[in-house]
Amino acid sequence: MKKLTLVAIAFVFCLLQVQARAQQFDAAFGISTLTSGSPTTSNGLFFPSERGGTYPGFSADLLVHHRFGIEGEINWRASQGLYGGYQPYRPIFYNFNALWAPRVSKNITAELMAGIGGEDLRFYGFLNCNALLGCTNYSSSNHFMGDFGGGIRAYFWHNAFIRPEARVYLINNNAEFSSSTVVRYGIFLGYSFGER
Fold this sequence. Notes:
By secondary structure, the protein is mainly beta. The chain has a single domain, classed as Porin, CATH 2.40.160.20. It is 10% helix and 67% strand. The protein has 1 helix and 12 strands, in the order H-E-E-E-E-E-E-E-E-E-E-E-E. Strands 1-4-5-7-9-10-11-12 form an 8-stranded antiparallel beta barrel. It has a two-stranded antiparallel ribbon with strand order 2-3. The longest helix is centred in the first third of the chain and has 20 residues. The relative contact order is 0.21.
């Protein structure tokens, strides 16, 4: 009985080891910018465009089965913009995606993804205090969003890669701006851990 238990434990351990080796974890940092519809005026109110600016960001993904996996990312505006020419603001985009990363060649991998997330618009110059979290110098306007997009991972040295990418954000009730559709495009530098 003890030998059978040891054999079963060794078998499970080997199975888990093979499964763990088949997984791939990727992490990347990059710079992006936004484009969106033109500014509009409606009923005497001005709605600016959510375009321009430099957006640093981080992303990480885990491929778990046959090049399918999950991905998460966060991108924020590096410097505050001026909303309507006078109000300092900064958008932060975060999302979680289903990911398919088919290998095109030995050193090229495509990425296609879709998922959900949110936009946190921070308008500065307001003092907000909370008994639990303390005080902040901004007021937030949060919006649910869906996103989809893709990129091309080009491995240039061992497991290091460069990834040009584009994402389309479909922002629910983005009433502060002229359009609820925002496109982010940029370039990321990353590294793959595990088998690729």
